[in-house]
Every structure is written in structure tokens, then in C-alpha cells.
Amino acid sequence: MENLLVLLDKIQQLSPLPVFAQDTVIVQNAGMQHWLNMSLAEQRGISMNMRYALPSQFLWNLIRNLASDEDVPEQSPYSREVLAWRIDTLLAANEVIDDDAFKVASDYWQADSKNSGNNSYSEAEQLKRYQLACQLADLYEQYLIFRPEWIHAWHQGEFTAFDHQASASSSDTIEEGKQTEASNAIWQGKLWHLLVRDQPYDPRELVALAIKNLNNVDRLKAQALPHRLSFFGINAMAPLWLEFINALSEQIDVHFFHLNPCYAYWGDVVTEKNAIEAWLKGTDFSAGQKTADENNSENDQQLGLFTDVESNDFESKDLADINQQVGNPLLANLGQQGREFMALLYQYSTINIDVFESAVADLASENSKSADQANPSAEAIAQASVLASVQQDILSLTDARSPKSTKTLQSPKVDGSILITSAHSALREVQGLHDWLLHQFNQDKSLTPKDVLVMCPQVEQYAPYVNAVFTRGWQDIADEVPPLPCSIADRISKDAEPLVAAFAQLLTLPDSRFQVSSLIALLRLPAMQARFGINLDDIEKITHWLEVSCVHWGLDKAHKQQVLAQSEAQETETLSGTSDSFTWQQGFSRLMRGFAFADHSVIYQNQMLLPTIEGSDSELLGKLMLIIEQLQLTAINMSKARTASQWQQFLFDLLQQLFDDENDNGLNVVRSAVESLVEYCQHAAYTSDISLAVIRDFLNSHFSQPDPGRQFMIGQVTFCSMLPMRSIPFKIIAVLGLNDGEFPRQRQPLSFDLMTTTPAQLGDRSRRGDDRYLFLEAIISARQALYLSYQGKNIRNNKDRQPSLVLKELMEYLARGYGWQLLGLNAETETGAQTNTLSQVRQLPMQAFSEKNYLGRFGSFDANWLNLRRTKVTDSSVHNQTENSNSQTIDNSMAIIDDSLSVTDVIRFYQHPSRYYGQHTLYLYLDNSHTVINDVEPFVPNHLDSYLLRQELLNYYLAPAQSKQSCDDILLSAKLSGNLPDLPNTDELIKGWQKDSEDFSQFIIAELTQNDALTIAPIDCSVTLDLANILTNQTLLANGLYSKSDLEILKTVLPQHLTLNCKLTIVDNKALFYRSSSAKAKDLFTLYLHQLIIQIAQADEAQENADIFANISATHGYYFDTKSQKPSQFYFSDIEDAKGLLLGLIVTFYLGQHQPLLLNGDIGEKIRKSKVFEQAQFEQFWSDSNSFQAFGDDAYVQYFWPQCPDYEEISPRLLTLYQPMFDALQTVKQGANK
């Protein structure tokens, strides 16, 4: 491609145009235009007076000028976009509906309707008709380019079937296919005849007229023909256009700068499969004849280097003949599209200027350079890289696998010029590429980000990972790592622009449920925030309001019933569609009336008012109500059908009402799409009203088109989709996503596409053919290195996955031609080692923090993952696992020693030690995720809400005189809170909870006293512990739980004296605890800890609150077993060595402030209930799939222990701390004496 650039520059220099004349260059896309312009500017110092154009629009304008017919519109009425609206008009016309020939088409978009007018069809029917029109417009555009003879026949009124492609195995099937094809040809031909009648400018006739006028010299004087015309980098063009360009070349200079991958004649090469088939049949095969395999894209996977015929089946002469027919297998299998285009060009009289340069010439030593730059010496070839050698094979039409090849090696030829990588996921592909690129930049100081191109079949699938890996702050990696700025081109507007996605969502308002999360997403748009004067803090406040007011969906009662009726959920409608619960109307009412009434919650007119709004917050609430009101009006008005110009006015008004940020590119995208709608309808003379469904489909289709011009080659690492005719040379080219079934990409043909049922012709294009040629261009466009990546492992079960066929062909070529070892490329031993150490395929570990990720030639640069890995690695004991460089251990000299401690903190610590350490020491809030409001109203009671209500009722029944609310008020408040389902059986559920709470309270009262009620009066008390000599306590240290490093930490953090503060409810000489829930490990630990404190206080009369503790005999806990629906009772009393046990708990508490400890009462309880608890049982508990959340899935546990630790290392401390508790635990069976 660089040589073509030099040739273009030389032609312009040797044959300059007039000073003010523009040099016209035709390119296929904006990417090629950008590269060509920048490259010319780099060579000349400036690039000016260059006119770039796309082929279709330029040729149409030129033909229009040459036809000299003023009635021919500037916009072709036969372009796909305009043609769709013209076809839509005809499909709705009575002339088409009443014609039996169109029965197939009419039956498709018409349901059971027998109507005859456009306005009387349903919205769904109009949408199906428009979608059919779009598909037909696309087909007709293909017919115009590749089958102009059909178009001409239809124009003349000849509606006959064409030659059927006999690919069926049964004669009956063939006959049926012919009949179907004949029917499709007739109605498509008639439809085209009607289109030409309305707009009698057949493109084929216009081309013929333009060619005729080219020969009229006098006529040409009035035409603005370009002085010179250059086609650059185009590798496919329809025969119709080539015919016109050939005629044009007789009047002006026309240059085709075509990238030919091979300097030898390769028009007769065939695929290896076709050559073998021809040999087996004993026939001669010609490349000019298309095979069924090449016609049918579904059989494309059969083309390749893999056959069922062994080489032993051939004689040496036969094998030589086959190799000669194939030439280079990569070129034969991947280059069909380029071969056919060359064949089309050779049909015309041309002057060929061949500029070929050997791919290995620059890499040869000076003493061995060959005079023939296209045929380097053997020494140069031997010194060349693998990439250059493969490129040279393609260029010279040689096969490295051939016995005669000079490249036949005794050992594999391997270097870093071609790297094939296998990963488990798209994220790991991007991470692996990032690490590899950093190594390339370290090795080559001349390499810059603009020298790297990364291609993907669909860049949208990789864009989120690219942003996460490449665009993060460089300080997160390391200071010595160079930055890798990147840009992502070819993104579709709907994914790249949040405002475009939001606008597409607004188009669904008439069908919307007005979910609360959708509104919050809208409010987060900067353009909407600018319009209504709100900020992110306001949004957080609004989110809180909507959460407490229980707004989920629905504008009001009427809207809610309408949505339920449309969804045909009759059962749901009966249950919850009769009230305004969970709607915006009810939420606003609760907030506004609460603002006006009082500063506390109050029930008024059967509604619980919320005192959430205060002062100036009322202004923000007003803005929120205004937004909802405007959206409601938009939903009502949007349902009406309008003409294209009326839709333009309506949608522009909508943009002005909701968005106010002219700098947002999304607004320009939306406006451009709407303007395109009006433009196409004007050119198509489409004046009918358009339904919302059609508008939505048109705009979504427009928003889903990639923009190839933006973010391409802007001086950064360029990520882009794989697009045809963009074979720009880069030093490094990477291709991601080369997975089987995903590339080459497939396009499902339409059942009525006549081109798929008739023999293929020279010059026909297919999506798979384009992709195969794209891959060939990627190989020959890389100058230093080619990086190929695919997902070769299943991320769920680690099973092998196949690469794309094109990648597999290249791998097979490298294996057989260059000795690459590919067998066992994905097989790993349990230790992670490759079973085949010679494999040239790089297998990435599944996780970025894997130790293997930092080994080998291309180890990762990400220090964060490495530090985290070191933090989590379990050393000889659990104590040592946090002593690495990033151990998260705080500086002990900065520790604040407090001599006062709340028992509540100790309980909270032992409930979840690693979470307590993460939050209180590291300020690490892993579970502090962004609040997501639920769009779905509750249909079953939330366990937490039901527990809170039962606990409140229990408190009331135990001590009604101390309750601030009556029982009726408690029940009514719960019902009106919005936390419970709005269902007929909700009252029964509440009554059931009330009955359970009342029975449970009576049980507790009966166990404690003979009175009808209790006096619940918690008493503040404390106990003082002497910790001065605790670290010399031999009993405490005898079990070996504390390492030397632990003791050093404890020396600096333990206070001399500690005061433990607690609250006790004492009834009938018992410390009382109760919960309206099943007893959990944390409840038992609470009883245990308080009993230890009580016994220490009783043993020391010098304690300040000795009188409070003196008469307490035991600590009792009462709980309501939710499974058996029965109360349960536990208690502790007379625990041996209470002081030693409490001191052990306190010391471990202080140690847990400085390192994560794997302690949990749930593990201890599991050990107690299990007869045998060893490593296997521990691992099952760690990843229990039957539980709602396995122990190892907890965010903090997973952060500090990514893998299940050795049970023997943690069991000593677990048993020491929890075994005495469960040994001392006493259970009171129901019916036993008090």
C-alpha cells in the first residue's frame, strides 16, 4: 500500500493539474481517506486540493450530469434509503394488494385484515410492511449492481424466472424450488416495474446514456468531468460501474491503485479442496468457474487446508500438479474476492504498472540483497521473520509446505513477528494484548501508539473492556510503564452516545411502565441536568426520596390499569391493578403532604406522609414533578401518527424540552437522523402519515450504524471493526475475536433473495468472502508484528474451543510450512504447565491475578493484580498471608489506643471479622454498592420487613405501657409504608405475624414472671479489665495461636486497662435477650459474651457496677424458630474460666484490627453440628451452591481469601474461640420446668 501511495504522489507530480483544479480520489471509507491524506501531507509537507469521494454517490452524480436530464434528482431514487419508502407506498396501494401475484408479500405484512386503506392498518402491520420494504430495497440495490440484466428485463415487462441453482438432492425439491423462485421473480419484477413507472430513470439505462454522451465531444464541453480520476484501495466493484469507468477512461485519465497481494499471475489458482475434488473426478478445474462451495456461503467452512484425502493417496506427479494449481494455500483460500476483481479489471484494456517489493528485502543483510526486490535471495529469506516469510510466500505464490520449498526446516522457525493467543474471555483477550503491546514498546523505542491497529469483528463487544484496560489512570499500573492512549472507531451511536440511547428509550414512552430506574438513568444525562438545573447530588437525593416513598412504576392508577390490561395479565390486574400503590402519583402525594403537615411521619386520610422534604428541597421536588409531567404529555402526544416533517418538528421540540447541551455530540446524531428521515421521504415523495413504530424502527436502525470516520487514526492506538477495503499498513496489527462461528461473519439470506437461488457470477460479493479477504489483507498489511487472538477456552468448564477457520488455516500453514508446534496447545497440567512446552500458541491464564500471568516472555505489567495476589497467597500459616508488600497492615505506631470499648463493637467484629477489619481499618466498603431502585413492586413480603414488624409487635406485647404506638397504629403504619405487597392476602399475613408475636410474647412472659407484662428497662453498665500483663499469660499463649508478629502488634495496640460498656435488661435475676427470629450464631455469641462479663463482674467486688451484676444467675435468650413456628430458649450460666475466655476474645479483637482473620460463628456452628468436619466439608461449606450465598462468595471473604484456605491452619483459632461457647450452651426444651 505504501508503494501505491508513492505511485499516486509521483503521478501527481509528473502530471500536475491546473492550479485551482482538484485531484479527485475515490476511496471506500473515511479511514482510507484519512490515512491517504495524512501520508501525502507527510511526504509533501502539505496535502491540498484533494477531493475525496465515495464511489456510489460520486458515480451517480457523474452519470446524472452526463445524462443531461434535469429531471434526474440529485439523490438517486434507487438508493436503498429512498427506495424503502417508495416500496412501502406501493405495498400499501390497492393495485398491489389486489394483485394475486403479490399474495406472498401482502400476506406477510397483513394479519387478518382485509382493509384497503393505509390509515386503517394497525401499527404492527405498518411496521412489518416497512421492514419488508427495507429488505426489498436492499435486494433491489444488489440487483442494480450485480444483476442489471434482471432490472432491464423487469423494466421491459418481462417477469420470467431465472436459471435455478440445482443444489437440492431431490428432483421434487428442485421443482418446488423452481416454482418458488418463479413466484418470487414475478412479484419482484412487477414491483420493480411499478417503481420504474413512478420514476422512469432506470440506472442501467442512465449508465448507457452517460456512456453514449461520453462519445459526444460537444456535449462534454458543458460537463464538469474531473481532470483526473483515481480509485485508491478499492478491491471490489460491480461490473456495471467498471463498464462506465472504462468508457470514462477514454476521455480522462483513470487510475486504479489496487493492492495486489501477489506479483505472479494467480487468476487460475484454486483452493486445495477444489483441486483435490477435480483430481478425484479426473477433470480439469478452471478458476474462472465458480463451484457450489463458492456460491453457497453456508459451505464456506469446507474451504481450507483440511481434507480427508491423505498425501499417500497421490503420486508425486499428481501432488505436484495439485500444488501448482493451488499455488499458495492462504492466497487461494482467502483471496477469492481479490482474484475475481482482478479478473474483472483484466477484461478491459489497461496499462499495468507493477510496483512490488519483497517482504523480506529490508530484513536481509546488505551483502545479500538481491537486485530483484520482488525475489530476494535465499539468505535473505532465511534471515527474515516468520511474518515477512509468510508475506513473501503470498507475494511470490509459493507454498512453504512444498518439498521443493527452500523454507523446509529441521526445527521450528519461531519469532515474535506472529503471535497467536488463546484466552478465556474477551476481557482477558484485551488484557493479554495490553501486556504484549507494553513489551513491544519497551523493545522498540521508535514505536508510537499511532503505529498500532487493533481490529475486532464487532468492536462494540470489546469497547467496554478497552475502556477498562487501556484508558485507566497510568498511576494504577507503574511509574515506568509508558501510556497507551487509545481511540475506539466504528462505534454505533446507540452504544457510544448515552444521549442517543436515552432518546431511543424516550421513543418507547407510550408503551413504557415509567419504571423508576429509567427516570434515574435519564436524570444522569448531563444534557438533561443542564436543562432542569440539577446535579449529581440532587439525583442522589431524588433517589432516596423515591426509595422511601416506595415508587416503583406507573404514573397513576389509570395508567397502571392500562399497562396491565395491555400485557394481558388479567390475574395480576385483578390483584394489584385497582390501587395507585407504588405509582408516581402516590409517591409525590406522600412527599408533598408530608412536607406540608409535620416533621415526623403521620397517617392522614389512609396515607402515611413522609417528612423527607425540608426547606429548599421543595424546589427540587417541583423540578422532578415537572419532568414526570412533561414525559407523561410526551407519551400521550407521541402515539399519534404524523408525516415526516411533522415528526421532525415534534422530535426537535422534544429535544429542546428535555435536553440543553449543544456540546453533546448525541444531540447532533439525533438531529441528523431525523433530518435524514425527512430527506428520504421528500426524495421518495412519501406524504403519508408514519406511525410511531415505523419511526422508532427507522431511528434505531440509523442509531445502530457505525460511524467509520470518528476516532480513526487520531495518533493513538486505534481499535476498530473489521471493515472491507481498509487495508492500511501499520507496524503492528492485532486481530481479536477470531472465534469459530463468529468470524468470518455470517449473513442469513432472505428466502426471497433471487441471487441466492441462481448461479453466482463473477464479481458477486458475500459477507464471508469479504471477511476472508479482510483477514488476508491484515496478514499482508502488518509490517513488524501480527497479533491474533481468540477465545480458546470455555470460561465455565475450561474446555477447548476452536478458533476461526481462517485462523486455523494460518495455524495449519505455519505448522506444516514453518514447523510450528500446535498439538496440545490448550492442554495444561494441574500445576498450570503446558503439556506441550513447544507449543507456539500462547495460552493466557483465566484470571489476571494468576501467578502464570507474570511469568514467561510477555508477563503482565499490572502491579495491582500482583500485589493483590501476594496479599491473598496463603503462606505457612494464615498469619503470614498479609505480610507481603501490599498486605494492608496498618502502621502500628499510628494506632489510636482507646481504653474504652463497647460490647456492641466486639459483637459486630465477631459477626464478620474480615468485614470489620476492611471497613474500620482499611475504609474498604465492598458492599457499599450504588443503590439500585427496584422497578418491580413487592409481590411477596421481604424477610427483613416482616422481621422488623414482628419485632416491633413483640416489643409492644412484652411492654405495652412503654410503647409509643398502639398495636393498631403499628399495623396500619406497616400496611401504609409501601414495603408490603398490595395484595388481598396482605391483611391475613399481617394478622398471622401479629398472632405469632402475641403468642411468643406470652411464652416469654410465662417463662420469666407471673405478671401479664414486663418492664423492659435496659441498664447501662460496665466492667473494667486489667490487660497490663496479659501477653505474659501462659494459659493464653500456650495454645500457640499468636505468632511473634502477632505479639509485636498486640504490644503496641493493647491498652493497660480496658472498660467494657454494655446494656443489660434484667428480669427475674436473668439477663434477657430476645428476637422474633431463629437463633443464629451471632445471637448465641451475644449471650455468651454477656455471660462472661457478668461472671467477671460477680467475681470482682471492686467493679463499679458490682451491685447490678450481683444477682444475675444466667443469661437467657428467647427466639422464634421460623421453620417450626415454635419458640426456642437458650442460656449460659457458670462458665468455667470466664476471665480467660473473655481475655482471649478481647486480644483477638485487637489483633483483628490490624490483619484480616478468618473467624465466623457460622463456621463454628457448622463444626458443632457436623459429626465429621475436615477439609472436604470445609470446602463444601465454602462454596455451597445450595445456599443463597456461599460463605466464600462474600465480598470481604473473597477479597482476602480468593481461594478456600487450608482448614488445618484456621481450625485451632476457630475451635479455641468457639468450642467453649458451644460446650457451655444450654438449651431449654419446651415443657421443661423453669
Automatic annotation (TrEMBL):
InterPro entries: DExx_box_DNA_helicase_dom_sf, P-loop_NTPase, RecC, RecC_C, Restrct_endonuc-II-like. The keyword Transmembrane does not apply. Keywords: ATP-binding, DNA damage, DNA repair, DNA-binding, Exonuclease, Helicase, Hydrolase, Nuclease, Nucleotide-binding. One of its GO terms (biological process) is double-strand break repair via homologous recombination. GO terms for cellular component: exodeoxyribonuclease V complex. It holds the Pfam family Exonuc_V_gamma. One of its GO terms (molecular function) is ATP binding. Residues 899-1160 form the RecC C-terminal domain. Belongs to the RecC family. In the RecBCD complex, RecB has a slow 3'-5' helicase, an exonuclease activity and loads RecA onto ssDNA, RecD has a fast 5'-3' helicase activity, while RecC stimulates the ATPase and processivity of the RecB helicase and contributes to recognition of the Chi site. HAMAP family: RecC. Heterotrimer of RecB, RecC and RecD. All subunits contribute to DNA-binding. A helicase/nuclease that prepares dsDNA breaks (DSB) for recombinational DNA repair. Binds to DSBs and unwinds DNA via a highly rapid and processive ATP-dependent bidirectional helicase activity. Unwinds dsDNA until it encounters a Chi (crossover hotspot instigator) sequence from the 3' direction. Cuts ssDNA a few nucleotides 3' to the Chi site. The properties and activities of the enzyme are changed at Chi. The Chi-altered holoenzyme produces a long 3'-ssDNA overhang and facilitates RecA-binding to the ssDNA for homologous DNA recombination and repair. This is RecBCD enzyme subunit RecC.
